[in-house]
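User: Teach me something about this protein's shape.
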Amino acid sequence: MKRKIILTADGSKTIQIEDWDEQYHSKHGAVQEAYHVFITHGLRLFADRKINLLEIGFGTGLNALITLLEAPKLKLDVNYVGVEAFPVSNEEVAELGYCAQLDCADKQTEFQRMHETPWEEPHPITGGFVLTKQKKDFLEVKDENLFNLVYFDAFGARVQPELWTEEIFSKMYDAMQQGGVLVTYAAKGSVRRAMQAVGFTVERLPGPPGKREMLRAIKN
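Assistant: First, the predicted structure itself:
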């Protein structure tokens, strides 16, 4: 499918799938959305510990980069697993310019390493951040009672409804530890009901720019 780099409302860039009119991140602000959904309402619930974190949709690596930047402030060691079936190219990563946008030029080498390290193997990116990229379909996740936090950042239900079903959220539930948290930009009623049907306690939270609400699910 044809892809292009577009500018979003906060000055950061993202990749658009033109055939779907769908973006990897919000056109209302890629960086703003990432911080609001995954850091403010996800990562910041944890501090002073080691956590296992699963990202569904590694994509551009933006969520991994901001997690790497924020984890030291929370005194977190992060074991980060990013699942992606269709990796972006190194050329696209370079054009996105996230380190310049986030004023972290000193982390450019680490960000490049995130994309260049081999798949299916754990790689220390910094002293407190280990990344394992897994190239597979989201339905192939088979971990059990492992993750403290899940960033659920799949393409929207409008274009890929099969990724927002009870089947997929059952896999997420099984993969998470008791007390684990899943955050997503999505807020559709059907998504919330699918989460609840597999056992999650779900709360609606204020959404990022351009969205009224988002969802946070907890495995009790």
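Now, about its shape. The first strand starts at residue 3 and ends at 7. Residues 72 and 128 are 8 Å apart (CA to CA). If you'd like, I can walk through any region in more detail.
User: That's plenty for now, thanks!
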